[in-house]
């Protein structure tokens, strides 16, 4: 098993390197002068020349890539031309909002979806099945930003029991910070819970028709015991895969919800960098998001070894 993990780690490193090359080349081949894109076409020639020198645009492409990767490995992500500060500090501040938001959303999604999906599968064709699948379908059909607007109208504007937006910071205390993230987390979790409910239902139904479940029932095991001892553990692999994909989506795709609630998250930083033509921030944020996706997929692969004894035996 250790050899398999070592191979996966090597594949992780190679993938990260390949992704960094692609990101750097895409940013480099964008039409127009990067300095002119950042400063605008009305910038003075001496200002453009100074920015090109600061960004190292006068150096050959391999040297610029090596300098960028060296900075990433040492924690020096460059300086933002818009904010005038280190990009690493900007990203760390935004991660302090986006990561807790994504964790809260994925916990809510799993807490809603797993019971609904298992209930629907165990009582296929019943009223509970129709109710669970109907709720899941409604959740899938609702855009998360629209859910966020509804939550603001109901719980902030009408009832006044939750903040409508903004983030006080973790220095203000954990309860106020969690209260500011509660409605955005619900807005992100509900559509994802709809998808996960359908996946859980399908996975459990597939396992319930396997021979080993029928054998367990033939040996006298009750329906409930066969469900929880055999069907649910063996149905977790596709569920874990979807949860990993949803977590990366919640980190990289929460830009709309962050803008609806005015949260200073990573998605909003990427959008502001795009609007303000801050290519330094854009390049680093895209690399970070890609790295998070790759790392989460790696952790999902490792979880297969824990959940499936057959994989452990083959490893």
Automatic annotation (TrEMBL):
Membrane topology qualifier: Multi-pass membrane protein
Keyword vocabulary terms for this entry: Cell membrane, Membrane, Transmembrane, Transmembrane helix, Transport
Highest taxon of the lineage: Bacteria
Start and end residues of each ABC transmembrane type-1 domain: 95-300
Location of this chain's protein in the cell: Cell membrane
Cell cycle among keywords: no
One GO MF term attached to the UniProt entry: dipeptide transmembrane transporter activity
GO CC annotations, alphabetized: plasma membrane
Matches recorded under InterPro entries: BPD_transp_1_N (IPR045621), MetI-like (IPR000515), MetI-like_sf (IPR035906)
Transmembrane segments: 7-27, 101-122, 143-162, 174-191, 235-257, 285-307
PROSITE patterns xref list: ABC_TM1
UniProt family annotation: Belongs to the binding-protein-dependent transport system permease family.
PANTHER family: DIPEPTIDE TRANSPORT SYSTEM PERMEASE PROTEIN DPPB-RELATED
Protein name, per record: ABC transporter permease subunit
């Amino acid at each position: 098993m250790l050899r398999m993990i070592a191979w996966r780690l090597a594949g992780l490193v190679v993938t990260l390197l390949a992704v960094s090359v692609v990101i750097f080349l895409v940013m480099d081949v964008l039409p127009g002068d990067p300095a002119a894109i950042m400063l605008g076409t009305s910038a003075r020639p001496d200002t453009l020349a100074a920015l090109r020198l600061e960004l190292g645009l006068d150096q050959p492409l391999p040297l610029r890539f090596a300098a960028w990767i060296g900075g990433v490995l040492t924690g020096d992500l460059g300086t933002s031309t818009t904010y005038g500060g280190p990009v690493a500090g900007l990203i760390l501040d935004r991660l302090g909002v986006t990561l807790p938001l994504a964790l809260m959303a994925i916990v809510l999604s799993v807490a809603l979806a797993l019971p609904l999906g298992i209930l629907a599968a165990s009582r296929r064709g019943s009223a509970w099945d129709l109710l669970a699948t109907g709720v899941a379908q409604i959740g899938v059909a609702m855009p998360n930003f629209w859910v966020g607007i509804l939550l603001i109208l109901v719980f902030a504007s009408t009832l006044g029991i939750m903040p409508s937006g903004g983030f006080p910071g973790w220095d203000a205390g954990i309860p106020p910070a969690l209260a500011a993230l509660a409605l955005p987390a619900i807005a992100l979790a509900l559509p994802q819970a709809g998808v996960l409910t359908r996946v859980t239902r399908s996975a459990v139904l597939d396992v319930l028709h396997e021979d080993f479940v029928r054998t367990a029932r033939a040996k006298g095991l009750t329906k409930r015991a066969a469900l929880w001892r055999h069907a649910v553990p063996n149905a977790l692999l596709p569920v874990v895969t979807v949860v990993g994909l949803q977590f990366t989506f919640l980190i990289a795709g929460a830009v709309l919800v962050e803008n609806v609630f005015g949260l200073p998250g990573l998605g909003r930083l990427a959008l502001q960098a795009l609007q303000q033509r801050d290519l330094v921030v854009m390049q680093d944020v895209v690399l970070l998001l890609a790295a998070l996706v790759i790392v989460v997929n790696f952790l999902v692969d490792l979880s297969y070894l824990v959940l499936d004894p057959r994989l452990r035996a083959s490893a």
